[in-house]
Amino acid sequence: MCGRYVQVFTAEQVKKTLPAIIVPSSFKGVQNYNTSPTQNVFIVSEDSKPQLFETRWGLLPPWESDKKKTGLFNIRSETITEPWKQKPGYARFIGSILKEQRCLFLANGFYEWAEGSNPKQPYFIYSRKELEESNLMTLGGLSYEWVNKDTGEVFKTSGILTQPANELLKKVKHHRMPLIINEKYRNSWLNPEIDLGEIKQIVKQTKPSKEMNAYPVGKIGRENSPSYVMPSGETIFPEEETKINHHLSLLGMGGRRNNPR
Predict the structure, then answer these.
(1) Can you give the pLDDT at residue 253?
(2) pLDDT in tens, 97-122
(3) Does any domain span residue 123?
(4) Would you say residue 213 lies in a domain?
């Protein structure tokens, strides 16, 4: 699953990651080290051209009556590739929005908690190339405009697709991970003209572990704090100390990490 992630970026970084995107002049950047469900997040979706939108994380299906509910902040990718294994109503709803309401979540990285540990150990997981080049990870998602049947209020909501863990996440002792859309597939994912077969092929892609890394961090609370990305131990895969410090500086964390190698 993906229950917390980091949004720390400027309009320039968004445009660098997705050169064709339209970024509203009102967007002045975001700095959220502890993005969680029901918070407002920034996504990219197609509206004649890729555009940056603000939405609420937690996709509300049409049968939901209360906008305060958490909603579907994670959506299993198997709902797309194996809909017959899911609850019929849920699978039909996901299938109905799949064609034209795909989106990309923008992230610097995400957190996962090791299963089986007590207390559970959180890890910060990131893409090496994107973080080194000051680009952003793009996570596959779906969006839906939920309508309050009593007031007519329209509420833009969204959820992140998840898939089985790759080898890195397994080393973190977690069994799921977000669907990471690599640069090669970003335009296709946003294109409303692609067919279901191509969508399924993209969903089946898993980002290779060698392109990612992770390190343990301290306890994560509810507030927004840059200290949450500060390492409390070694990276899963060996990485030079200078690169770790560079990663931290890009996330607004100057200086050295807590326990240098």
Answers:
(1) 64
(2) 998 899 999 999 999 999 887 889 99
(3) no
(4) no
Residue 9's H or E segment, with its range, is strand 4-9
Q: Where would I find the H helices in the chain?
A: 11-17, 78-81, 88-98, 128-132, 167-171, 183-190, 196-203, 241-250
The CA distance from 236 to 200, in Å, is 30
String of DSSP letters for 48-76: SEEEEEEEEESBPPTT---TTS--BSEEE
Spatial distance between the Cα atoms of 125 and 95, rounded to a whole number of angstroms: 30
CATH number at residue 191: 3.90.1680.10
Which residue shows structure tokens 């979706």? Answer: 45
pLDDT tens digit string along 139-185?
999 999 999 988 999 999 999 999 999 999 999 999 999 999 999 99
Yes or no: say if 123 and 114 are a contact pair by the CB < 8 Å rule. Answer: yes
Residue 18 sits at the vertex; the CA angle it makes with 14 and 21, to the nearest 5 degrees, is 85
In a domain, 258, yes or no: no
For 7, the enclosing helix (H) or strand (E) is: strand 4-9
Number of folded domains that form the chain: 1
What's the token pair of residue 237? 């895969």
| Whether pLDDT at 54 is above 80 | yes
